[in-house]
Write a structure and sequence with these properties.
- By secondary structure, the protein is an alpha/beta fold.
- Among the domains are: about 5-175, 3-Layer(aba) Sandwich (Rossmann fold); about 245-380, Zinc Finger, Delta Prime, domain 3 (Up-down Bundle), CATH 1.20.272; about 455-505, no CATH class; about 565-675, DnaA, N-terminal domain (GMP Synthetase, Chain A, domain 3, 2-Layer Sandwich), CATH 3.30.300.
- Helix content is about 50%, strand content about 5%.
- It has helices at about 5-10, 20-35, 50-65, 75-85, 100-110, 135-145, 165, 180-195, 200-210, 215-225, 235-240, 245-255, 260-270, 275-295, 310-315, 320-340, 345-355, 365-380, 465-470, 480-490, 490-510, 510-515, 530-545, 585-605, 610-615, 640-645, 650-665, 680-685, 690-710; strands at about 40-45, 90-95, 120-125, 150-155, 170-175, 195-200, 230, 565-570, 620-625, 630-635, 670-675.
- The radius of gyration is 46 Å and the shape is flat.
- Mean pLDDT is about 75; it is low at about 395-400, about 405-410, about 420-455, about 460-480, about 505-525, about 525-585 and about 680-695.
Length: about 700
């Protein structure tokens, strides 16, 4: 009989001899035992994990003469034919070479015939992801509703390429990579039974190099067995092209010592020996990984496959965790550049130089340098100096705050309230200057604070206690807000005198002196007082008297109130804007206005302007006032879009209304207003006192919070 390779000779023939994949074996065995056999299965996983082998074992379990059973005998006629691949009822289709529509058509035709000698007709489609889209679509109907005697098993290494329509018709089983321990144990069993002498270290190295594939491990073991009488670690490294442990140890050590000449010399020797540059960088990355794992988890056995624990500990003295992470990034970047580099050796040499340099600019490189400096300082017996906050100069115009003593002194009692100062009258044409003793953020609040907030509160400091600690150094305790306020209150008279001296000088400056002579055409009249500033004293007096909300004075603003936006459409060339609400006429006048508006809408509907008529229908607006010359129409808040169309005089909607009024022979101006919403009326309507009320509530809440901080 011809020689068979190890992976064919030791191919599992039953679920018991299948290495790993315990979950798949249990699920398939239970399905056979309970008789719930699906019509299609999808086996996915890396190469060499047993997908096709499991499909053959499952076919034998279904067609065994003693079955269906989860333990096929392997001795009956059907089992022997399935094992040697001569069965007429178990067909293996290589989808990589039979991937067209015609191949799937032949499969569909043969699937209708009954099995020759077996119980089930099993189709094993290997590398199913290689089927074309047309072939997959041709297989859908048969795969969805196959004959009762047909079972499909699809095997693939790339399940993401399988169409979702195929996925939904199959039961999927994922095959996991086999663990290195299971591979090593199986290799020992195969080596002993095959008469191959092998060291345990060599078998562990083969298991690590096979990446979870049993077929790769058996092929590598067979190749190493012909290299000598005994399979050793050096034999495995030689066959695989792996760098020797001692050479790799020297290379990593020279990089750790930042010895660039020695590192480049070792790399040159490896290239001269015929080692692949990508393999050299890959093994350097693996060795650095082992160094890091040995430092962080000393009991992690996978770290000691590359080298001994003593060698890894010696290399760990040169590498900090941050430096290892930085080195991994450099190596991976160099491996990516190898694909596009004209000379791979140049990319590798630049990578080694970058690993040895000390002035890296990445965050991990900077962290590694800081860590190295800290270790040197500890070795010298010193300690890192304490961080000293920067000292900032005191702000101009603000008194220096004395530092707090080490022992906490009791807080002084609250100062007696000072008499209220009458507000100075505003001169005509000039706004009232702010109180210099108060910060700019507090100006004008005293006029609307009310009785809930005492008048003797100190001004709000410009900075918080942390700033005072920075000004006086790290050894001084932070100063509280109360002490800062006391210091500012002591300096208040001086600041007040300075402000009073500055006011007369500002009054002497006239607009003509400030403006350029060529820009002054004529003497401008004295500007009127700002509405917001002029209203402050009046509001202060009104709040002190605590009147009813509806009697509070209105706050005049330059902009129209948001609560009621207005826009007018005139039946002539003149357009009126921002005009106060029209006075309501008598009930008879309003009835006439309604009659006029209905006539306008009827004329619009009959003349082909249905869009304008729909926009101005009774569902969206209604007349509210008519005095014979002006008709006021109010739009509901929900019809704001229609209102926006009508308020523009040049829009086609407004033009249609004007032309209709002219055709009716009426000299009437149509004015449009928008119904105020609940939020707008409560916050901004001057007649309801909403703005003053909201401002008063906010100021009261601020005063309570301010007193709580000072207490």
């Amino acid at each position: 009989m011809a020689y068979q390779t190890l992976y064919l000779r030791w191919r599992p023939a039953s679920f018991e001899t299948l290495v790993g994949q315990q979950g798949v074996k249990t699920a398939l065995g239970n399905a056979i035992k309970s008789g719930r056999i699906a019509h299609a299965y999808l086996f996915t996983g890396p190469r060499g994990t047993g997908k096709t082998t499991t499909a053959r074992i499952f076919a034998k379990a279904l067609n065994c003469e003693k079955g269906p059973t989860e333990h096929p005998c392997g001795e009956c006629h059907n089992c022997r034919q399935i094992t040697d691949g001569s069965s007429m009822d178990v067909l293996e289709l290589d989808a990589a070479s039979n991937r067209g529509v015609e191949d799937i058509k032949n499969l569909n035709r043969t699937a209708d015939f009954a099995p020759v000698s077996c119980r089930y007709k099993v189709y094993i489609i290997d590398e199913a992801h290689m089927l074309t889209t047309e072939a997959c679509n041709a297989l859908l109907k048969t795969l969805e509703e196959p004959p009762e005697h047909v079972v499909f098993i699809l095997a693939t290494t790339e399940p993401q390429k399988i169409l979702p329509t195929i996925h939904s018709r199959c039961q999927r089983f994922d095959f996991r990579p086999i663990t290195p321990g299971d591979i090593s144990a199986h290799l020992r069993k195969v080596a002993d039974a095959s008469g191959i002498r092998a060291d345990d270290d060599a078998l562990d190295l083969i298991a690590a190099a096979s990446a979870g594939g049993m077929r790769d491990a058996l092929s590598l073991l067979e190749q190493c067995s012909v290299m000598g009488d005994t399979v050793t670690s050096e034999t495995v490294r030689s066959v695989r092209g792996i760098i020797g442990r001692e050479v790799l140890r020297d290379l990593i050590g020279s990089i750790g010592r930042r010895d660039i000449p020695a590192s480049l010399e070792i790399f040159d020797n490896l290239v001269q020996m015929g080692k692949d540059i990508g393999q050299i960088l890959t093994e350097m990355s693996g060795y650095l990984r082992a160094v890091l794992l040995s430092k962080m988890a000393q009991n992690y056995k996978s770290a000691y496959v590359i080298d001994t624990s003593e060698a890894l500990a010696q290399a760990g003295a040169w590498f900090s965790p941050n430096r290892i992470l930085e080195g991994q990034e450099i190596i991976h970047r160099a491996l990516g550049n190898l694909r596009f580099a004209a000379h791979g050796r140049i990319a590798a040499e630049m990578c080694i130089y970058e690993l040895c340099r000390e002035d890296g600019q990445t965050l991990k490189a900077l962290a590694a340098r800081v860590e190295a400096l800290e270790k040197r300082l500890e070795a010298l017996g010193g300690a890192p100096p304490a961080a000293v906050p920067p000292v900032r100069p005191a702000a101009a115009g603000r008194p220096a705050v004395p530092p707090r003593p080490a022992a906490m002194a009791p807080r002084p009692a609250a100062a007696p309230p000072r008499p209220a100062q009458p507000a100075p009258a505003a001169a005509p044409g000039r706004s009232v200057p702010p109180n210099p003793a108060r910060p700019s953020g507090m100006m004008g609040l005293g006029s609307v604070i009310g009785p809930d907030m005492p008048d003797d509160l100190p001004p709000l400091p410009d900075e918080f206690p942390g700033d005072a600690a920075l000004e006086h150094g790290a050894d001084e305790a932070p100063v509280s807000l109360a002490e800062t306020a006391v210091a500012q209150k002591a300096a208040e008279p001086e600041a007040k005198k300075t402000a009073e001296k500055a006011v007369p000088k500002a009054e002497k400056k006239q607009p003509e002196e400030i403006m350029a002579p060529e820009k002054v055409q004529e003497k401008a009249p004295e500007p009127e007082a700002e509405p917001e500033t002029a209203a402050l004293p009046v509001m202060e007096k009104e709040v002190e008297k605590a009147p009813e909300p509806e009697k509070e004075p209105e706050i005049k603003t330059a902009e129209p109130p948001v609560a009621e936006q207005t826009a007018e459409t005139v039946a002539g060339p003149e357009v009126k804007e921002n005009e106060p609400a029209a006075p309501a006429g008598s009930p008879g006048d309003l009835a006439a206005g309604n009659e006029l508006w209905n006539a306008v809408l009827d004329h619009l509907s009959s003349s082909g302007n249905a869009g304008t008529a729909s926009c101005c229908s009774v569902d969206n607006c209604t007349p509210v006032a008519f005095d014979g010359k002006e008709l006021t129409v109010r739009f509901r808040a929900e019809a704001k879009g229609c209102y926006n169309r009508m308020k523009t005089p040049r829009s086609r909607f407004a033009a249609a209304i004007r032309k209709t009024v002219e055709k009716l022979g009426r000299d009437v101006t149509i004015r449009y207003v928008l119904e105020e919403t609940e939020d707008e009326g409560s916050l901004f309507a001057p007649e309801a006192g909403g703005m003053q009320k909201t401002t008063q509530e906010a100021i009261d809440a601020f005063g309570k919070a301010y007193r709580r901080v000072n207490e």
